[in-house]
Amino acid sequence: MSSFLGSTVEYYDFLLYGSAAGLVFPHLFFDKDMDPTLGMVLSFVILLAGYIARPVGGVLFGHFGDRFGRKNMLFITLMMMGVVSVVIGLMPTYATIGIAAPIILVLLRVVQGLAVGGEWAGATLMAAEHVSEGKRGWAASIAVTGGPTGSVLATLVLGLFAGLPEEAFMTWGWRVPFLLSAVLVIIGLYLRYRVTESPDFVAAQASGEVHTGVPIVRVLTKYPLSTLYGILACAGPLFMQALLAIFMVPFVVQTGAVDRQQALMLLTASSFVHIFAIPFFAALSDRFGRRPVMLAGAGISIALVFPMFALFNSGSFWLIALAFMVGNPIIQASMYGPIGAFLAEKFETQDRYTGVSLTFQLGSVLGAGTAPLMATWLMGLDNGLGTSNIAVWFIILIVLAGVSVLLSKETLGRNNSAASRPVDSVDSSAAR
Question: What InterPro entries is this protein classified in (predicted)?
Fold first, then answer.
């Protein structure tokens, strides 16, 4: 519960910016005489800055999390996210402080990125390391579902205020969702204060297997293949997650098929179903293995991506609603559901926080961080293909993800305690 609610708060704050980046920030934090498309692109660039900061945060918090424990790091990341979100809600706009507005926004987004970089792996590991091995995939997915839960809350609250008259929404309505995060943060901090330290870490610490060196160096030298495969396995599903949450909402609004509030509500509905789809696919991986479920997910993604975009381009409210349902609970969740256990089981306990943070967050930069900018560029190509260009790029990412999963060894059923050597790692004794 602590991992789930903590991740929910983190991603509520992080994804709230993503939702506002296409709808609000281009109009408020840049010169009003600037071309609207350029303003949106710059908002997405600031969004990318947060994603670029995530691997740095993952390495930073992973370093201390692998040396001193998971609990304290998670308390700090949650506090950082809450403070930044409240500050964004209170920020003056470009009309008030000029160029300082987007500069401050960049700095705040980087701090958010650092916090989320340490959050995802820590929360996932706290859940996975508290349960028996046969339930690790499902437990890890509960923390992972904090992402879509945060998305539900972010889009729901922002969507409710988006129904205000235009002037009221742009003046104060968009600020309230950011300020409300303070309530969620207080609840999350209380739960994180109460939670016990990871049993796996405590056991490794008691046996003297927690190293005093630099975890990032060990990860890159002991687990080069695990790191590479983890990055590529994450990129495809994370691209789809960010595409739906950030790019497709303003896209369908601009087509005139739905208004701003309707688009946010459709995303909210699909994210709600997404909450249950992720643990469903994770539970399947506990029974049949990580690789079979994720490879099946790759096949599902490739088969459904063109039909999904056809639905988005239909101009019909209900078909667009169906498109969001195809994209989030089916395409994205089918590969993403087992990802927490898939990554955690590649690393030993004393290296796991850093290893999972680094792989997931670099995959996040490659997939989610570039998604809105890549989609904007692909849509602008002068070849008449429109969203088909985005579909082709997504298929490329999914093929890379599928190959990475295929080349990884199955981890279900292996004892990944500190004393065991994880799959795909470099055997240093053999090298000597």
Answer: MFS, MFS_dom, MFS_sugar_transport-like, MFS_trans_sf
pLDDT tens figures, 97-141: 888 888 888 888 889 889 888 888 888 888 888 887 778 888 888
Distance CA 339, CA 362 (A): 14
Closest CA to 229 of 401, 366, 358: 401
Q: Return the DSSP state at 326.
A: I
Q: Computed over its alpha carbons, how large is the radius of gyration of the chain?
A: 21
* Interatomic CA distance for residues 34 and 38, integer angstroms: 7
Helix (H) or strand (E) holding 90: helix 71-90
pTM: 0.79
Burial 158-182 (b: 16+ CB within 10 A, else e): bbbbbebeeeebeeebbbebbebbe
Under the banding of pLDDT at 50, 70 and 90, the label for residue 204 is confident
Alpha-carbon torsion (283, 224, 112, 97), positive or negative? negative
Per 3-state DSSP, what percentage of the chain is helix, strand, and coil (rounded to 5)? 80, 0, 20
Residue type, 114: L
Judge whether 411 and 134 are in contact, CB under 8 Å. Answer: no
Taking the C-alpha atoms of residue 318 and residue 326, their distance in angstroms, rounded to an integer, is: 12
